[in-house]
Design a protein that fits this description.
Number of strands: 4
Distance between the termini: 18 Å
Order of helices and strands: EHEEHE
Strand content: 35-45%
Radius of gyration: 12 Å
CATH architecture: 2-Layer Sandwich
Shape: globular
Strand order of the largest sheet: 2-3-1-4
Largest sheet: 4 strands, antiparallel
CATH superfamily: Lrp/AsnC effector binding domain/regulation of amino acid metabolism (RAM) domain
CATH class: Alpha Beta
Length: 85
């Protein structure tokens, strides 16, 4: 399994509509609105890296309102962490 965090920038005022659309995607496990350089942060899971690429390029980046994305693939996490974000 491949787990990644996707940092998203969106047009002003589009945070809630983008969050709603992103949250409909099965591989998106959580999506939160943030303050700062990035407007949303999403945790995603796929079965392999190639699937992650397809998810990011074809599904997430195609959501209207997104202006920029950065994807961080997780290499390690705490096993007992029940709330990863």
């Amino acid at each position: 399994m491949v787990v990644a965090v996707v940092l998203l920038c969106v047009y002003p005022g589009k945070e809630h509509s983008v969050k709603e659309e992103i949250s409909k995607i099965t591989q998106v496990k959580s999506c939160r609105i943030t303050f700062g350089e990035y407007d949303l942060v999403a945790e995603v899971q796929t079965d392999k890296v190639k699937s992650l690429g397809t998810l990011i390029t074809k599904r997430i980046r195609s959501v209207e309102g997104i202006t920029k994305s950065i994807t961080l693939i997780i290499s390690e996490s705490l096993e007992n962490d029940s709330n990863q974000f």
